[in-house]
Write a structure and sequence with these properties.
The structure holds 3 protein chains of 3 kinds. Chain A has 2 domains: about 45 residues, no CATH class; about 190 residues, Cytochrome Bc1 Complex, Chain C, CATH 1.20.810. In chain A, α7 packs antiparallel against α8. By secondary structure, chain A is mainly α. The model of chain A has no long low-confidence stretch (mean pLDDT about 90). The radius of gyration of chain A is 24 Å and the shape is globular. Chain A has 11 helices and 1 strand; from the N terminus they run αααβαααααααα. Chain B folds into 2 domains: about 70 residues, no CATH class; about 180 residues, no CATH class. The two termini of chain B are about 55 Å apart. The model of chain B has no long low-confidence stretch (mean pLDDT about 80). Chain C folds into 2 domains: about 50 residues; about 140 residues, Rieske [2Fe-2S] iron-sulphur domain (Rieske Iron-sulfur Protein, 3-layer Sandwich). Helix content of chain C is about 25%, strand content about 25%. The longest helix of chain C is centred in the first third of the chain and has 32 residues. Chain C is elongated and about 105 Å long. The chains are: A mainly alpha, B mainly alpha, C alpha+beta. At the A-B interface, α3, β1, α5, α6 and α7 of A face β1, α1, α2, α3 and α4 of B. Bound molecules: protoporphyrin IX containing FE and FE2/S2 (inorganic) cluster. The site of FE2/S2 (inorganic) cluster has 13 residues of chain C, from loops. Protoporphyrin IX containing FE (HEM) binds next to α5, α7, α8 and α11 of chain A.
Chain lengths: ~250, ~280, ~210
């Protein structure tokens, strides 16, 4: 009976229009599943046996990627309740924490996955360094990697402001004030004042959209955190993985 | 485009699809590897990835049963929590801000770290050590990486465990709830030390400091050039200069922290615009 | 040119038929094309840059009416720190205010009456009652805000965006500016000392 139904289902036109091949339990379908699937085809169809050795990569890059995906998912859940308005943001976070079903879990997961991502990006970079995987022809991928590291850190920092609590406020006050010390384009930086930069026209003003961290800063960080940076990271990741496929994996022979 | 076509790298087998394609010489990751050396990605690799993802998820879900994301009181510009700690990954930066002026510790130094990291593959000319873990073949490169990140992690540890109220230095055994009196030391710029020790005028003192600063870089640049000619020759001029600038700056940061902690030196170089 | 176009459209034949004036024209067109691209890019970059600078701000108030001088005792008064982010300081000669923003990276320092010091919780800057830097990484002295008398009722008015920021000289004790330089209008109001106060018991405020 069940067999019959399964047979009917998998042979139906609808099913076959979605899954173009049988279950990957033979070599042909195993090849198909990878190269006909947009997500799986970041992989080659076949990998060298030695590339599977865990003690080479420790799966660190993969874990970083997984944490990024996890952050995107939990972040979207949080966005359903979060308002980037100084009068509401803190209350929204409290609601998530105390009254909304699962809100606490999503918030905790988002926060610790973020810490984890920073840690694992660093571990991954250390792995790449120690195995010399940045040497030719993979130089450029290392540069892309450094960009990813920087964007990961900026993502964490912009997200830090959103709860609008004391930690958030002061971390961002200090961080953006540092921007005002940028040489030449910050009001406090060397040659900044001489070039005519004031609290109302320098780089820090541009960053926080005002002279003090307030509503404009919150909305700017919100947009950066939820749209701009994840988009850039995704683009950079696409390049990162493309380069790995093109330059080949450095792993043992 | 006009690559020479090479046939018969390995015997053709009519049952295999590669019998249909031309084989070319060229650099490709899979060249010279027998197809038999490989396994199918599905399920071998996919399963590893799936297990990794599941483990991470499980780990995180277990973790958040015990620790929770912090939420302090509502943002309030009139009071700063005491002490105010940055998230751990920025604590190194926060600690550096104690030793250097903000334009340097907050802007130039992070910029140099980023650019410095990016230059790695371009200045490391050692062809050895790709694809496996080794220390003996790449001692110097690994030393550099470790030194830089040791500096980073040490400052993180200091920021996390050894700083307390009013960002004062607290030992683990001192009472973290009592405000300590500020240490009764005064930080002085180096040229004042010269003025006091050598009885020279302030300007001479400053000139001495400038000289010292440039001498550090000049001598640092010169020593490997003259004494370790092989090292220089392997790199070539441009790489050498780029590398040494970053290398000496990194060492300089460590040196300055030591000078500050041991001798209470505030600045080495004092100019009307910038102090280092 | 036209003969070349009517040919096969092959690159080589095009090149062969080009006269020097054709080449010049092509060079010019190329330069003009890139010029247009460049100008467009520069223009839109500038527009994007301008876009990020709001010409209108909704920020907390910066002008406060703080009552009469006689309502403040000698020394540092913290009652406006919460609402206005400034301290009111009265000494034997008059009254001034200091903005409670650390000159290092903008945290709010705390006042310790027993130590007679302001100390910042972020990176440990230390200031004295006059706002001079006595330790830590702060690169300048605390700001003093504008302080004036309301012409109608004589109450003291503080404006925290108009700030005094003299160039400090570095002394072994820290970054330091003479009181005389800072006690100037409109950042300081002269006033007789409170009754009973004497210089001998309040040397810091003398
Ligand atoms: C968002 C952060 C990042 C993600 C998600 C990511 C992901 C990955 C993945 C999945 C791999 C495959 C091998 C492995 O798992 O180790 C990889 C390889 C690589 N990554 Fe990353 N990475 C990130 C950041 C970085 C950083 C910060 C660097 C270095 C500065 C870097 C440099 C490289 C290089 C050079 C390779 C090639 C390694 C080889 O061929 O052995 N990546 N990355
Ligand atoms: S902000 Fe006050 S010491 Fe850094």
């Amino acid at each position: 009976m069940l067999e019959n139904l399964k047979e009917k289902l998998t042979k139906s036109q609808v099913f076959r229009s979605i899954f173009r091949h049988g279950f990957p339990d033979n070599d042909m379908n195993r090849a198909y599943v990878v190269f006909s699937n947009v997500f799986l085809h970041v992989h080659p169809v076949k990998v060298r046996r030695s590339a599977l050795r865990m003690r080479y990569t420790f799966c660190l890059g993969g874990i970083t990627l997984f944490l990024f995906i996890m952050l995107s998912v939990t972040g979207i859940w949080l966005m359903f309740y979060y308002t980037p308005y100084t009068g509401l943001a803190y209350n929204n976070i409290q609601d998530l924490q105390f009254v909304i079903f699962g809100g606490n879990l999503m918030r905790d997961l988002h926060r610790f996955a973020a810490h984890g991502m920073v840690l694992f990006v660093w571990l991954h970079m250390t792995r790449v360094f120690l195995t010399g995987a940045y040497k030719a022809p993979r130089e450029f991928n290392w540069v892309v990697g450094v960009l990813l590291l920087v964007m990961t850190l900026i993502l964490s920092w912009t997200g830090y402001l959103l709860p609008w609590d004391q930690l958030a406020y002061w971390a961002v006050t200090v961080g953006t004030k540092m921007a005002s010390y940028t040489p030449f384009i910050g009001q406090n930086g060397p040659w900044g004042a001489q070039l005519g930069f004031l609290p109302t026209n320098d780089i820090m003003f541009m960053l926080i959209g005002g002279t003090v961290v307030g509503q404009n800063a919150l909305i700017r960080f919100y947009v950066l955190h939820c749209v701009v940076l994840p988009l850039f990271v995704t683009i950079a990741l696409a390049v990162h993985f493309w380069r790995i496929r093109k330059d080949g994996f450095s792993g043992p022979l | 485009m006009e690559n020479k076509v090479t046939r018969e790298i390995f015997p053709r087998d009519a049952r295999k699809s590669y019998g249909l394609v031309e084989l070319m010489k060229g650099s490709n990751p899979i060249v010279k590897k027998e197809p038999e050396d490989t396994v199918y990605t599905w399920p071998n690799l996919i399963m590893i990835e799936l297990i990794c993802a599941l483990l991470v998820t499980a780990g995180l879900i277990i973790l958040v049963q015990f620790v929770h994301a912090p939420l302090r009181s509502l943002a309030d510009p009139s009071t700063t929590p005491n002490p105010m700690r940055a998230p751990w990954y920025f604590l190194g930066l926060q600690e550096l801000l104690v030793y250097f002026d903000p334009w340097y510790a907050g802007v130039v130094l992070p910029g140099m770290i980023i650019v410095g990291l990016m230059t790695f593959p371009y200045v490391d000319t050692n062809p050895k050590g790709v694809g496996y873990y080794t220390f003996s073949e790449r001692k110097f490169a690994i030393f550099n990486y470790s030194f830089g990140f040791a500096l980073w992690w040490v400052t993180i540890v200091i920021g996390t465990y050894l700083r307390g109220l009013d960002w004062q230095w607290y030992w683990p055994w001192s009472d973290h709830l009592v405000h300590m009196n500020p240490a009764l030391v005064t930080l002085v710029p180096l040229h004042i030390v010269f003025v006091n020790l050598l009885h020279v005028s302030k300007d001479v003192g400053k000139a001495l400091c400038d000289l010292l600063f440039f001498a550090y870089f000049a001598v640092g640049m010169a020593i490997p050039y003259f004494l370790m000619r092989k090292f220089y020759d392997a790199m070539g001029g441009a790489r050498y200069v780029v590398f040494m600038i970053f290398f000496l700056s990194m060492m300089g940061v460590g040196l300055k922290i030591v000078l500050r902690l041991l001798f209470n030196i505030k600045y080495i170089v004092v100019t009307p615009w910038i102090n280092v | 040119m036209s003969t070349a176009m009517s040919g096969t459209g092959n690159q080589d034949s095009l090149k062969d038929a080009a006269t020097p004036s054709d080449l010049g024209r092509r060079k010019f067109m190329l330069a003009a094309g890139w010029g247009v691209v460049g100008v467009t890019l520069a223009g839109s970059t500038y527009a994007a840059y301008k876009f990020m600078f709001p010409p209108i701000l909704y920020e907390p108030p910066t002008v406060f009416k703080i009552g009469h001088v006689t309502e403040y005792g000698l020394g540092v008064d913290e009652r406006w720190k919460l609402k206005g982010r400034f301290w009111v300081v009265r000494n034997m000669r008059g009254i001034y205010n200091m903005i409670s923003i650390c000159r290092h990276l903008g945290c709010t320092p705390n006042w310790f009456p027993d130590q007679k010091r302001f100390r910042c919780p972020c990176h440990g800057s230390i200031y004295d009652v006059h706002g001079n830097v006595r330790g830590g990484p702060a690169p300048r002295t605390l700001w003093r805000g504008q302080i004036t008398k309301d012409p109608v009722d004589g109450a003291v008015v503080v404006n925290t965006v108009v700030r005094l920021d003299p160039n400090p000289s570095q002394t072994p004790q820290g970054l330091w500016v003479k009181e005389k330089v800072k006690e100037i209008k409109p950042f300081w109001l002269e006033h007789s000392p409170p009754p009973g106060a004497s210089c001998s018991s309040n040397r810091l405020l003398c």
